[in-house]
Each structure stands twice: as structure tokens, then as C-alpha cells.
Predict the 3D structure of the following.
Amino acid sequence: MSGNSDPLTPRAKLAVTAGKAAAAVSRAAGRGSGSVIGGRVALKLDPDLLARLATHLDVILVSATNGKTTTTRLIAEALRAAGPVVSNALGANMPAGITSALAGGSDARYAVIEVDEKYLSGVARDTDPKCIALLNLSRDQLDRAAETRMMAEHWREGLAGSKAVVIANADDPLVVWAASSSPNVVWVAAGQMWKDDAWSCPSCGGVMQRPGDDWFCGECGFRRPTPSWALTGDHVLDPHGSAWPIHLQLPGRANKANAASSAAVAAVFGVPPQVALERMYQVQAVAGRYDVVQFMQRDLRLLLAKNPAGWLETFSLIDPPPTPVILSVNARGADGTDTSWLWDVDYTQLTGHQIFVLGDRKLDLAVRLEVANQQFQVCENLDQAVQLAPPGRIEVVANYTAFQDLRRRVGN
């Protein structure tokens, strides 16, 4: 950490003030948190502001296709055992949103920052992170983020020679390929449920062999590294072989994997696994995800799933049939306008559920469900779907902007 207690120049201070004012105006106008517009205004006035704001902080960056918002929150909770933390907890994960978050952290010791996959290299260059957590790479927003192999290559180039400790998922070949250019990697066996983006070798293009949980390329020898940390059932195994129980209020195996990676990050900063995992139990929901809300005298559980890997994980969480399920899909800018990913999701896992479909692209989803031989009803809005749903808790699964629409409707 820098000994300079105030790294900000007069210009930087002006930029921070202007950014906060712009954010306040945006909030007053009912246009969201204002973090993005505030950050844009601040960076316009001082293009180097992000780097200046990071100089007095131990920065931890978290990037992935799935799980980065939750993992960011879990790491932040764990590190609060060691000192004050600033974080972009609401998921504004591009440079403007990150700048806004850091502008509010003048008294913090740690910055735990979620970073959009596409911006990881640039944000790492600006913030000189002490630690970078890489969880997974899978297809998502193909119109914006391009193919996963290209993203892995972009990460690999950006991480080459990085001084950061890289905490990386040993079970995802694309993440391993990306992280292998870094000299200081801690491997975590966090698992990989969605494997359809990792059947060819990122090193040579050969066919990957995947016996059990292992993987290797039979042509060039690229293979799964030996992990130091591992998720086994309901426990995290640390590098000494000690097993630490995971008790989370967040559901599903994916969140246990997020907790395992988070414990490995916390250990870099001297927070023991037991302390880190106990603190993670405090997290009940993340930006509305997993919340159970009351709406029209019904219990609705809100679940975010924005790409094939996320939908696969989410289907493993929902209550068994005949629990009613509402699916909502948009294709706005923040979602990615290409909905072809719907065809990669195995909707036969919803057989036996009563399904209700809504959102801007409800007809795209309806065609996909028809082909999957599922029984469903297309609805105009959430109110209609809830009225038609049979008794019991309703599982509501939505992609990014559809999720935000639903949160606003239920007042969450």
C-alpha cells in the first residue's frame, strides 16, 4: 500500500465531485444508481482517475462469465475481517462504474472489484491489482464479447508478467490457458458444470480428453494443473489438506464453488478459511438474486440466468415439478442482442413444470420451448403469469434487463 494518504490532484478531486453530482442527479431523476454516468463524467474530466483512485488500495479484481457479482460480494465480506472494503457491489463492472465505486472508498484498505471480461486487461493495467480471481469463461453476449477462445487469448496477453496473485479455476481449460501466462497462479478445483465451450484445446486446437473431472489434450499435452484448493461436497480443502465447512444462505453448488475461490483470495491477504467462510454466511442475496419476494399474495424467488452456463446452474436450483416457473428474456444492449444462445440451453430439464414465458423476446423463447417439447403459456406481463400460475412458490428465472424489469415490478 502507498504511504500517500491523499493521492488525488486538484483536477482529480474536481472530477470526483462532478461525478458524484452527476450520479445524484441521475438518482433523483429515477434513472438508477447513477454510478455509470457519474463515472463517465469523472473520467471525462480526468482520464487517469481510475489509476489515481486505486493507488492507496489493495485491489482485488474478479472476472468471469458467471458468478463474478456473487464472488465479489463473498470476497468483500471475507476481507472485512482484515479492514475496510470498497466494492462495486451492484455490478457496474466497466471502467465508469468501477471509477464511481472507488471514488466512494477514500477510507478503504481493500477494493474488491467485479470486472467485465472484456475490460479485465485494461482495468488491471490501471489499478495494479494485488490479486485477480478468474472463475470461468463461457459463451455470452456473442455480439459484443466475441468467441470464448478470443476472450481467453485476450486475458492471456493481458496477464502475461502480471505481479498479481491469480486465483484461477483449474477445472476450466480456457481459464487455465488464460492464467498460465502469469507467473504466480493459485489453482482452485471449483468444478465446471457447463463444458460445451471447452472441447477443443485452447493451446493447439486438438480435441480435449475429459475423463471424469480431469482434462487434457492428447496432442500437445496441455492439461489440468494440480489444484492447491478444492471444493469437495460441502467443504473447502485448503493447501494444507484441512477441510473447512461451507455454510451459505445462497443456494446451489455454483455458490459453493464461488465460496471456495473467495476463501483462496482471502487467504492471500491473511484471512484464514474459517474466518472467511463464516463471514460469507452473512450474504443472503446479491443485488436481488435469490431473493424471495411477496407479489400478488404469492412468493416469488428471483433467479438471474443470462447465458447457457447460468441457465444450467439455475435449473439445478429450482424446486422440483410441478413448481410453476416463469421465464423472462430480453435482448437489450446490456443483455446482448443475439438470442441464438437460447438454443444451447437444455430446456428438457423443465419437464413437468408449468412454464410461463414473458419478456421482450418471449416469442424467441416460445419457439425454443416448443422444439424442446415443453408445455408453456406465453404471457403479456408478470401480473398475468402470476394470476395463471398454480398454487405454491413460483420460481422466476430472467436474464439481465428482464431481471431488472421484474425487480422494479415487484418493488425489490
Observations:
- The two ends are 38 Å apart (CA to CA).
- DSSP finds 15 helices and 17 strands in the chain.
- The chain has a mean pLDDT of 91.
- The CA atoms of residues 144 and 276 lie 35 Å apart.
